[in-house]
Design goal:
Pfam families: DUF192 (PF02643). By secondary structure, the protein is mainly beta. It has one domain: Protein of unknown function DUF192 (Jelly Rolls, Sandwich). It is built from two helices and seven strands. A seven-stranded mixed beta sheet has the order 5-4-6-3-2-1-7. It is globular, with a radius of gyration of 13 Å. The relative contact order is 0.29.
Length: 119
């Protein structure tokens, strides 16, 4: 899977340097299933997507919901296995990150997120 770097343009910091792209039907369905965890600098960007689940996962994740302009519209912290997020009509894509990354990176609603290495 191709990876990109994701940074918070509002706070001028890198969120994750190894983020996989999930934009095909198969890659979106698979997501993080089958993984045993995420390192601090890893994640996955899923689009289009307006909500996620952790059914079948063995670890918790942080989920950042982005609107069409890649502005943070929703935050789900430490989403445990066997959970489902709400569906948000303003969210167009999501970043799935290691649990605790939202707090560690200081991500807040309204922040602008940039993807480096994505056409």
């Amino acid at each position: 899977m191709r990876t990109i770097t994701v940074w918070n343009a509002t706070r001028d910091n890198v969120i994750a340097a190894k983020v996989g792209l999930a934009h095909t039907t198969f890659s979106r369905m698979r997501g993080l299933l089958g993984r045993s965890g995420l390192e601090s600098g890893e994640g996955i960007w899923i689009w289009p997507c307006n909500g996620v689940h952790t059914v079948g996962m063995a670890f918790s994740i942080d989920v950042v919901g982005l609107d069409r302009d890649h502005r943070v519209a929703k935050l789900w912290r430490r989403l445990a296995p066997l959970r489902i997020t709400s569906v948000s009509f303003t969210v167009r894509s999501v970043l799935e990150l290691s649990a605790g990354k939202i707090q560690e990176a200081g991500i807040q609603i309204g922040d602008v997120i940039r993807m480096e290495g994505h056409e």
